[in-house]
Write a structure and sequence with these properties.
By secondary structure, the chain is mostly helical. 75% of the residues lie in helices and 0% in strands. It contains 20 helices and no strands. It has helices at residues 2-47, 49-87, 90-106, 112-121, 126-131, 134-137, 142-146, 148-153, 158-167, 172-199, 226-247, 249-263, 282-289, 291-298, 307-312, 316-320, 323-329, 334-347, 350-361, 367-395. It is globular and about 60 Å long.
Protein backbone atom coordinates (compact mmCIF):
# COMPACT_ATOMS: atom_id res chain seq x y z
CA UNK A 1 0.00 0.00 0.00
CA UNK A 2 2.80 2.39 0.90
CA UNK A 3 4.55 1.63 -2.40
CA UNK A 4 1.34 2.41 -4.29
CA UNK A 5 1.04 5.75 -2.48
CA UNK A 6 4.67 6.62 -3.31
CA UNK A 7 4.13 5.84 -6.99
CA UNK A 8 0.97 7.95 -7.00
CA UNK A 9 2.88 10.82 -5.38
CA UNK A 10 5.68 10.59 -7.97
CA UNK A 11 3.12 10.48 -10.77
CA UNK A 12 1.38 13.53 -9.35
CA UNK A 13 4.67 15.42 -9.10
CA UNK A 14 5.58 14.44 -12.66
CA UNK A 15 2.23 15.75 -13.92
CA UNK A 16 2.72 19.01 -12.01
CA UNK A 17 6.24 19.42 -13.42
CA UNK A 18 4.98 18.76 -16.96
CA UNK A 19 2.22 21.33 -16.52
CA UNK A 20 4.69 23.92 -15.26
CA UNK A 21 7.01 23.13 -18.16
CA UNK A 22 4.17 23.55 -20.67
CA UNK A 23 3.00 26.75 -18.98
CA UNK A 24 6.47 28.27 -19.28
CA UNK A 25 6.28 28.05 -23.09
CA UNK A 26 2.81 29.56 -23.43
CA UNK A 27 3.79 33.29 -23.26
CA UNK A 28 6.01 32.89 -26.35
CA UNK A 29 4.61 29.81 -28.05
CA UNK A 30 1.01 30.95 -28.38
CA UNK A 31 1.80 34.40 -29.91
CA UNK A 32 4.23 32.73 -32.32
CA UNK A 33 1.60 30.24 -33.46
CA UNK A 34 -1.00 33.00 -33.82
CA UNK A 35 1.32 35.13 -35.97
CA UNK A 36 2.39 32.26 -38.24
CA UNK A 37 -1.15 30.97 -38.67
CA UNK A 38 -2.48 34.49 -39.31
CA UNK A 39 0.19 35.15 -41.97
CA UNK A 40 -0.41 31.94 -43.89
CA UNK A 41 -4.18 32.23 -43.53
CA UNK A 42 -4.00 35.73 -45.00
CA UNK A 43 -1.86 34.62 -47.94
CA UNK A 44 -3.80 31.41 -48.50
CA UNK A 45 -7.14 33.21 -48.31
CA UNK A 46 -6.17 35.61 -51.11
CA UNK A 47 -3.98 33.37 -53.27
CA UNK A 48 -5.38 29.93 -52.53
CA UNK A 49 -3.40 27.45 -50.47
CA UNK A 50 -2.00 25.51 -53.44
CA UNK A 51 -1.03 28.69 -55.31
CA UNK A 52 0.53 30.17 -52.18
CA UNK A 53 2.73 27.12 -51.57
CA UNK A 54 3.73 26.88 -55.24
CA UNK A 55 4.58 30.58 -55.38
CA UNK A 56 6.73 30.38 -52.24
CA UNK A 57 8.66 27.37 -53.55
CA UNK A 58 9.03 28.67 -57.11
CA UNK A 59 10.16 32.10 -55.90
CA UNK A 60 12.76 30.61 -53.55
CA UNK A 61 14.00 28.27 -56.29
CA UNK A 62 14.32 31.07 -58.84
CA UNK A 63 16.10 33.29 -56.32
CA UNK A 64 18.57 30.51 -55.59
CA UNK A 65 19.40 29.89 -59.25
CA UNK A 66 19.27 33.39 -60.72
CA UNK A 67 20.14 35.65 -57.78
CA UNK A 68 22.09 33.80 -55.09
CA UNK A 69 24.62 32.32 -57.50
CA UNK A 70 24.99 35.70 -59.19
CA UNK A 71 25.64 37.32 -55.82
CA UNK A 72 28.02 34.51 -54.91
CA UNK A 73 29.96 35.18 -58.10
CA UNK A 74 30.26 38.84 -57.11
CA UNK A 75 31.32 37.81 -53.59
CA UNK A 76 34.09 35.60 -54.99
CA UNK A 77 35.40 38.37 -57.25
CA UNK A 78 35.22 41.12 -54.64
CA UNK A 79 36.74 38.78 -52.03
CA UNK A 80 39.67 38.12 -54.34
CA UNK A 81 40.14 41.83 -55.02
CA UNK A 82 39.92 42.64 -51.32
CA UNK A 83 42.58 40.06 -50.38
CA UNK A 84 44.78 41.34 -53.20
CA UNK A 85 44.49 44.87 -51.80
CA UNK A 86 45.50 43.61 -48.36
CA UNK A 87 48.48 41.67 -49.70
CA UNK A 88 49.98 44.57 -51.64
CA UNK A 89 49.33 47.33 -49.11
CA UNK A 90 46.42 49.09 -50.80
CA UNK A 91 44.35 48.78 -47.61
CA UNK A 92 47.13 50.38 -45.57
CA UNK A 93 47.43 53.15 -48.15
CA UNK A 94 43.71 53.88 -48.02
CA UNK A 95 43.81 53.80 -44.24
CA UNK A 96 46.61 56.39 -44.13
CA UNK A 97 44.77 58.62 -46.62
CA UNK A 98 41.53 58.49 -44.62
CA UNK A 99 43.09 59.00 -41.19
CA UNK A 100 42.83 62.83 -41.20
CA UNK A 101 39.03 62.57 -41.65
CA UNK A 102 38.37 60.36 -38.64
CA UNK A 103 38.62 62.92 -35.85
CA UNK A 104 36.76 65.89 -37.36
CA UNK A 105 33.95 63.84 -38.93
CA UNK A 106 33.47 60.79 -36.74
CA UNK A 107 35.13 61.70 -33.43
CA UNK A 108 37.38 58.63 -33.74
CA UNK A 109 41.15 58.16 -33.72
CA UNK A 110 42.86 57.86 -37.08
CA UNK A 111 43.34 54.09 -36.92
CA UNK A 112 39.55 53.69 -37.14
CA UNK A 113 39.92 54.23 -40.89
CA UNK A 114 41.24 50.68 -41.11
CA UNK A 115 37.88 49.43 -39.79
CA UNK A 116 36.01 51.33 -42.50
CA UNK A 117 38.21 49.92 -45.26
CA UNK A 118 38.01 46.35 -43.96
CA UNK A 119 34.21 46.32 -43.58
CA UNK A 120 33.82 47.96 -46.99
CA UNK A 121 35.83 45.16 -48.56
CA UNK A 122 34.14 42.40 -46.55
CA UNK A 123 31.23 42.60 -44.08
CA UNK A 124 30.17 44.07 -40.73
CA UNK A 125 31.84 41.43 -38.52
CA UNK A 126 35.28 42.49 -39.81
CA UNK A 127 35.17 45.28 -37.23
CA UNK A 128 34.90 42.66 -34.45
CA UNK A 129 38.24 41.04 -35.21
CA UNK A 130 39.87 44.45 -35.25
CA UNK A 131 38.25 45.57 -32.00
CA UNK A 132 39.55 42.43 -30.23
CA UNK A 133 43.12 43.35 -31.17
CA UNK A 134 44.68 45.36 -28.32
CA UNK A 135 47.14 46.94 -30.75
CA UNK A 136 44.09 48.50 -32.40
CA UNK A 137 41.73 49.09 -29.46
CA UNK A 138 44.23 50.87 -27.19
CA UNK A 139 43.88 54.06 -29.24
CA UNK A 140 40.22 54.42 -28.25
CA UNK A 141 38.31 55.86 -25.35
CA UNK A 142 35.48 53.57 -24.31
CA UNK A 143 32.74 55.73 -25.85
CA UNK A 144 34.63 55.71 -29.16
CA UNK A 145 35.30 51.98 -28.96
CA UNK A 146 31.62 51.13 -28.50
CA UNK A 147 30.62 53.35 -31.44
CA UNK A 148 32.79 51.21 -33.74
CA UNK A 149 29.77 48.92 -34.07
CA UNK A 150 27.83 51.68 -35.83
CA UNK A 151 30.86 53.01 -37.68
CA UNK A 152 31.88 49.67 -39.17
CA UNK A 153 28.35 48.57 -40.02
CA UNK A 154 27.76 51.69 -42.13
CA UNK A 155 30.29 50.46 -44.69
CA UNK A 156 29.54 46.72 -44.49
CA UNK A 157 29.59 44.89 -47.85
CA UNK A 158 30.05 48.27 -49.54
CA UNK A 159 32.14 46.89 -52.39
CA UNK A 160 29.58 44.16 -53.08
CA UNK A 161 26.71 46.66 -53.15
CA UNK A 162 28.55 49.04 -55.48
CA UNK A 163 29.71 46.31 -57.86
CA UNK A 164 26.19 44.90 -58.00
CA UNK A 165 24.67 48.29 -58.86
CA UNK A 166 27.33 48.93 -61.51
CA UNK A 167 26.53 45.51 -62.93
CA UNK A 168 22.93 46.69 -63.37
CA UNK A 169 24.16 49.47 -65.68
CA UNK A 170 24.47 52.38 -63.23
CA UNK A 171 27.78 54.16 -62.63
CA UNK A 172 27.53 57.62 -61.06
CA UNK A 173 24.52 56.63 -58.93
CA UNK A 174 26.41 54.10 -56.75
CA UNK A 175 29.08 56.74 -56.11
CA UNK A 176 26.41 59.17 -54.95
CA UNK A 177 25.01 56.38 -52.79
CA UNK A 178 28.46 55.88 -51.23
CA UNK A 179 28.57 59.56 -50.32
CA UNK A 180 25.11 59.22 -48.79
CA UNK A 181 26.27 56.22 -46.73
CA UNK A 182 29.22 58.31 -45.58
CA UNK A 183 26.81 60.98 -44.32
CA UNK A 184 24.64 58.36 -42.62
CA UNK A 185 27.71 56.91 -40.92
CA UNK A 186 28.57 60.30 -39.42
CA UNK A 187 25.06 60.64 -38.02
CA UNK A 188 24.95 57.08 -36.65
CA UNK A 189 28.44 57.15 -35.10
CA UNK A 190 28.10 60.57 -33.49
CA UNK A 191 24.61 59.78 -32.19
CA UNK A 192 25.80 56.49 -30.67
CA UNK A 193 28.65 58.32 -28.96
CA UNK A 194 26.18 60.76 -27.44
CA UNK A 195 23.99 57.90 -26.21
CA UNK A 196 26.98 56.16 -24.61
CA UNK A 197 28.27 59.32 -22.93
CA UNK A 198 24.80 60.09 -21.56
CA UNK A 199 24.47 56.58 -20.12
CA UNK A 200 28.09 56.29 -18.93
CA UNK A 201 29.71 59.76 -18.48
CA UNK A 202 32.99 58.24 -17.25
CA UNK A 203 33.55 56.54 -20.62
CA UNK A 204 34.64 59.92 -22.04
CA UNK A 205 37.99 59.65 -20.23
CA UNK A 206 38.37 55.90 -19.70
CA UNK A 207 40.68 54.08 -22.11
CA UNK A 208 39.82 50.67 -23.47
CA UNK A 209 43.26 49.43 -22.41
CA UNK A 210 46.13 51.04 -20.56
CA UNK A 211 48.82 49.55 -22.77
CA UNK A 212 50.89 52.40 -24.14
CA UNK A 213 53.41 50.57 -26.28
CA UNK A 214 53.59 51.62 -29.88
CA UNK A 215 52.16 49.37 -32.51
CA UNK A 216 54.75 46.93 -33.79
CA UNK A 217 56.11 47.40 -37.21
CA UNK A 218 54.39 45.57 -40.02
CA UNK A 219 55.49 42.02 -40.49
CA UNK A 220 58.00 41.58 -43.22
CA UNK A 221 56.58 40.25 -46.44
CA UNK A 222 57.54 36.66 -47.03
CA UNK A 223 60.11 36.13 -49.74
CA UNK A 224 57.68 34.89 -52.35
CA UNK A 225 57.49 35.86 -55.97
CA UNK A 226 54.91 38.38 -57.06
CA UNK A 227 53.14 35.72 -59.09
CA UNK A 228 52.75 33.40 -56.06
CA UNK A 229 51.55 36.29 -53.87
CA UNK A 230 48.95 37.29 -56.47
CA UNK A 231 47.81 33.69 -56.96
CA UNK A 232 47.51 33.01 -53.23
CA UNK A 233 45.64 36.27 -52.64
CA UNK A 234 43.14 35.63 -55.41
CA UNK A 235 42.46 32.04 -54.40
CA UNK A 236 42.25 32.73 -50.64
CA UNK A 237 40.07 35.78 -51.20
CA UNK A 238 37.83 33.88 -53.59
CA UNK A 239 37.43 31.11 -51.04
CA UNK A 240 36.31 33.69 -48.49
CA UNK A 241 33.84 34.99 -51.06
CA UNK A 242 32.35 31.51 -51.38
CA UNK A 243 31.79 31.44 -47.62
CA UNK A 244 30.05 34.82 -47.77
CA UNK A 245 27.96 33.68 -50.74
CA UNK A 246 26.79 30.59 -48.84
CA UNK A 247 26.07 32.70 -45.75
CA UNK A 248 23.63 34.95 -47.63
CA UNK A 249 21.50 32.05 -48.92
CA UNK A 250 19.13 31.88 -45.91
CA UNK A 251 18.56 35.63 -45.91
CA UNK A 252 17.86 35.80 -49.62
CA UNK A 253 15.60 32.76 -49.77
CA UNK A 254 13.63 33.39 -46.58
CA UNK A 255 13.46 37.17 -46.27
CA UNK A 256 13.30 37.99 -49.98
CA UNK A 257 10.67 35.35 -50.71
CA UNK A 258 8.44 36.70 -47.96
CA UNK A 259 9.00 40.32 -48.96
CA UNK A 260 8.31 39.59 -52.62
CA UNK A 261 5.07 37.77 -51.80
CA UNK A 262 4.03 40.84 -49.79
CA UNK A 263 5.20 43.24 -52.53
CA UNK A 264 4.19 41.92 -55.94
CA UNK A 265 0.66 41.32 -57.22
CA UNK A 266 -1.15 38.62 -59.16
CA UNK A 267 -0.26 37.53 -62.70
CA UNK A 268 -0.90 39.69 -65.76
CA UNK A 269 -4.37 38.20 -66.07
CA UNK A 270 -5.21 39.18 -62.51
CA UNK A 271 -5.36 35.56 -61.37
CA UNK A 272 -3.04 33.55 -59.15
CA UNK A 273 -1.29 30.71 -60.94
CA UNK A 274 1.32 29.63 -58.40
CA UNK A 275 4.16 31.08 -60.49
CA UNK A 276 7.19 32.76 -58.96
CA UNK A 277 6.99 36.40 -57.85
CA UNK A 278 3.24 36.56 -57.42
CA UNK A 279 1.91 38.15 -54.24
CA UNK A 280 -0.70 40.14 -52.38
CA UNK A 281 0.80 43.70 -52.64
CA UNK A 282 0.47 44.36 -48.91
CA UNK A 283 3.63 46.46 -48.53
CA UNK A 284 2.79 48.81 -51.43
CA UNK A 285 -0.70 49.22 -50.00
CA UNK A 286 0.75 50.21 -46.63
CA UNK A 287 3.32 52.48 -48.29
CA UNK A 288 0.58 54.29 -50.20
CA UNK A 289 -0.86 55.39 -46.87
CA UNK A 290 2.32 57.39 -46.21
CA UNK A 291 3.45 57.74 -49.82
CA UNK A 292 4.07 61.47 -49.43
CA UNK A 293 6.69 60.78 -46.76
CA UNK A 294 8.71 58.36 -48.90
CA UNK A 295 8.43 60.57 -51.97
CA UNK A 296 9.50 63.67 -50.08
CA UNK A 297 12.35 62.08 -48.11
CA UNK A 298 13.66 59.44 -50.53
CA UNK A 299 12.24 60.54 -53.88
CA UNK A 300 10.46 57.21 -54.39
CA UNK A 301 7.88 57.44 -57.18
CA UNK A 302 6.50 53.95 -56.67
CA UNK A 303 5.34 52.47 -53.36
CA UNK A 304 6.83 49.06 -54.22
CA UNK A 305 10.32 50.48 -53.68
CA UNK A 306 9.82 50.62 -49.92
CA UNK A 307 10.48 46.85 -49.89
CA UNK A 308 14.22 47.44 -50.38
CA UNK A 309 14.95 49.36 -47.16
CA UNK A 310 12.68 47.01 -45.21
CA UNK A 311 14.64 44.00 -46.47
CA UNK A 312 18.01 45.72 -45.92
CA UNK A 313 17.22 45.83 -42.21
CA UNK A 314 17.82 42.10 -42.05
CA UNK A 315 20.18 41.34 -44.94
CA UNK A 316 21.58 43.56 -47.67
CA UNK A 317 22.13 40.53 -49.93
CA UNK A 318 18.42 39.79 -49.75
CA UNK A 319 17.64 43.43 -50.52
CA UNK A 320 19.86 43.38 -53.60
CA UNK A 321 17.94 40.38 -54.90
CA UNK A 322 14.88 42.62 -55.25
CA UNK A 323 16.55 45.02 -57.69
CA UNK A 324 16.42 42.94 -60.92
CA UNK A 325 12.70 42.33 -60.49
CA UNK A 326 12.08 46.00 -59.72
CA UNK A 327 13.96 46.91 -62.89
CA UNK A 328 11.94 44.47 -64.99
CA UNK A 329 8.76 46.14 -63.69
CA UNK A 330 10.09 49.61 -64.61
CA UNK A 331 9.91 50.92 -61.04
CA UNK A 332 13.56 51.95 -60.68
CA UNK A 333 15.25 55.17 -61.75
CA UNK A 334 18.65 56.72 -60.99
CA UNK A 335 17.43 58.24 -57.75
CA UNK A 336 16.25 54.86 -56.48
CA UNK A 337 19.68 53.33 -57.17
CA UNK A 338 21.35 56.16 -55.20
CA UNK A 339 19.02 55.65 -52.25
CA UNK A 340 19.26 51.85 -52.43
CA UNK A 341 23.07 52.01 -52.45
CA UNK A 342 23.18 54.43 -49.51
CA UNK A 343 20.63 52.73 -47.29
CA UNK A 344 21.72 49.22 -48.28
CA UNK A 345 25.35 49.94 -47.46
CA UNK A 346 24.60 51.91 -44.29
CA UNK A 347 22.11 49.46 -42.81
CA UNK A 348 23.55 46.26 -44.36
CA UNK A 349 21.57 43.93 -42.15
CA UNK A 350 22.42 45.66 -38.88
CA UNK A 351 19.43 44.15 -37.07
CA UNK A 352 20.99 40.72 -37.46
CA UNK A 353 24.56 41.75 -36.56
CA UNK A 354 24.46 44.53 -33.96
CA UNK A 355 23.58 42.24 -31.07
CA UNK A 356 26.39 39.79 -31.81
CA UNK A 357 28.90 42.58 -32.40
CA UNK A 358 28.17 44.41 -29.14
CA UNK A 359 28.02 41.13 -27.26
CA UNK A 360 31.51 40.20 -28.45
CA UNK A 361 32.75 43.63 -27.32
CA UNK A 362 31.17 43.19 -23.89
CA UNK A 363 28.46 45.87 -24.12
CA UNK A 364 25.31 43.88 -24.92
CA UNK A 365 23.16 46.23 -22.79
CA UNK A 366 23.78 49.05 -25.28
CA UNK A 367 22.29 47.15 -28.22
CA UNK A 368 18.94 49.09 -28.24
CA UNK A 369 20.81 52.41 -28.34
CA UNK A 370 23.04 51.21 -31.17
CA UNK A 371 20.04 50.02 -33.19
CA UNK A 372 18.20 53.31 -32.66
CA UNK A 373 21.24 55.35 -33.67
CA UNK A 374 21.81 53.25 -36.78
CA UNK A 375 18.17 53.38 -37.80
CA UNK A 376 18.38 57.17 -37.78
CA UNK A 377 21.73 57.01 -39.57
CA UNK A 378 20.33 54.85 -42.39
CA UNK A 379 17.42 57.23 -42.93
CA UNK A 380 19.90 60.13 -43.00
CA UNK A 381 21.97 58.24 -45.58
CA UNK A 382 18.94 57.77 -47.85
CA UNK A 383 17.88 61.42 -47.50
CA UNK A 384 21.42 62.60 -48.23
CA UNK A 385 21.70 60.41 -51.33
CA UNK A 386 18.38 61.70 -52.64
CA UNK A 387 19.38 65.34 -52.04
CA UNK A 388 22.79 64.87 -53.69
CA UNK A 389 21.18 63.17 -56.70
CA UNK A 390 18.69 66.01 -57.13
CA UNK A 391 21.55 68.51 -56.95
CA UNK A 392 23.54 66.45 -59.44
CA UNK A 393 20.67 66.38 -61.94
CA UNK A 394 20.26 70.15 -61.63
CA UNK A 395 23.96 70.74 -62.28
CA UNK A 396 24.19 68.26 -65.15
Amino acid sequence: MQQFEEEATRTSETIKTARKSIASYIPQGIPCLVCVIALFWYLGHLMGVANMLNTLMHTAHDLLLNTVFYLMGICVLTGAIGRLFVEFGVVKLLERLLRPLMGPLFGLPGVAALGAVMTFLSDNPAIISLSQDKRFSRYFKKFQYISLTNFGTAFGMGLLVMVFMIGQGFFIEPVIGLIGAFCGCIVSTRLMQRFVIKAYPTFVKENVTDELDQLPEEEATESKSVFIRVLNSLLDGGRTGVDVGIAIIPGVLIISTLVMVLTFGASATGEYTGAAYEGVELLPWLAQKVDVVFEWLFGFHDPHLVAFPITALGAVGAALSLVPNFMSQGWIDGNAICVFTAIGMCWSGYLSTHTAMLDSMGYRQLTPKAILAHTIGGIAAAISAHAIYVLWTLIM
